[in-house]
Amino acid sequence: MAITALWANKLRSLLTMLGVIIGVGAVIALVSVGMGVRSGITENFESLGANTLIVMPGAANRGGPRGAKGSNRTLKYDDAKAIEQKIKNIDYVSPTVTHAFQVVNGHQNWNTSVTGVTPELLSIRSLTVENGSFITQDDMKKRTRVAVIGATVAENLFGADNPVGHNIRINNQPFRVIGLLASKGSSGFGQDQDDMIYIPITTAQERMMGIDFVHSINIQVSSTDKIDQVEDEVTTLLRQRHRLTGTKEDDFNIQSTASIIESVNQSTSMLTLLLGAIASISLLVGGIGIMNIMMVSVTERTREIGIRKALGATFQNIMMQFMIESMVIGIAGGLIGIAFGIAASFAIGSFGTVKTTITMLPIIISFLFAVGIGLFFGIYPARKAAKLDPIEALRYE
Predict the structure, then answer these.
(1) Does pTM top 0.70 for this prediction?
(2) N or C: which end of the chain has fewer CB within 10 A?
(3) In whole angstroms, what is the distance from residue 320 CA to residue 315 CA?
(4) Are 149 and 177 in contact (CB under 8 A)?
(5) For residue 83, how many other CB atoms are within 10 A of its CB?
(6) How far lies 74's CA from each of 56, 68, 202, 217, 261, in Å?
(7) Would the pLDDT of 61 be above 90?
C-alpha cells in the first residue's frame, strides 16, 4: 500500500527524492575530489623517493614574523658538495635553482619553469629520458647552454616534431635541446609536471640568474632507516659551515618526504572532511523535504486513515505504512544519488584539472545517512497519522 501510494504521485515522490539525490551525489563527488587531491599529492612526493631529504634556505616556519631579507640565500652550491663528500649513507645529492622564463622556438613561445640541476637529479626524481640524453658533468663544468625539456613544453614549441637537436631561446639566450623527458602527467592540484625545463645549475646560476646561492638541496639517503641519522649529520655540518654556534637558530630547514606526506595527508583529510560536511547539509535539507511531503500526505489521506482504523488497522499498521513510504524515498533517493555522485566524479576527473578518487566508504556512509534521514524524518508524520482518532478522521473533509 505504501509503494502504491508513492507510485500514484510519481512526480511528487521524485521531487521529494531530489534533495536526497543531490545530497548523496554531492557527498560522493566532493569527497572523491578531496581524496583525489590527497592521493595525487602523495604520489608526487613518493615519486621523489620515500628516503629523500630536502634542504631549504631559511629557518623552519614556526609562526611569528617572517625571515629577514636574504634569509632565502643561505644555501650555497659548495654546501651540497660538502654534504656529498662528508656525509655517509647518501646515494645522490643535487642542488637546484628555479625561475620562470619565456621560451621561444621560431614563432612559438611558452612561459615555463626553468630549473638548474645536476645530473644526479635524474635518479633522485626518478625521471626518464624518452629521447636524447640528460645533463652531464661536462655540461656542468663548461656551463654549456643545453636543455632537457618536458612533454608539455615540447608540444607547445615543436608540436609533433622531435625537439632533440633543435635550438630554443630561454630569456633571449640560445639553448640546444639535448633531451626529451617521458610524460609524468598532472599532480594532485592539477599542476602539469611536464611543463618544465632542466638546464645545468652552473649555467642557470652564472649565465641566467646571476646568483651564487641555491634554492634547495635534494638528498637521496641509501636506506629509510638512516634518514634520521643523515638529517642530524647534515644539520651539524651545515651549522658548522654557516658558523652557527650555541643557541643560534638554523638558517636552513630540512624536511623528509615522509614528514611532508604525513603533513599533507593531515591537511587534505581536514579538507575532505570539510567538503563532506558541507555536502551533508543538502542531505539534511532533503530530509526536511521528506518530512514536509509526508505531513502533506497525512493531511490529504486523513479519511483513508480513519476508514482503515475503523476496519481494524492498529497503531503499528498505520505507523508502518507511512514509515515505509519515507524509507522508500530515502533508499531510492540514495541509490539514484550514488549513481549521480559517481557520474559527477568521473565527469570532474575527465577534465584533467583535478584528480578524483572514488572509494566505498563515502558511498556506504552517504547511503546509510540517506536511509537514516528517511527513517528519522518519517517518524513524526507516521506517528501523527497513527494517532488520529478514527471518528474525527472520518469526519474530516
Answers:
(1) no
(2) C
(3) 9
(4) yes
(5) 22
(6) 9, 11, 17, 12, 25
(7) no
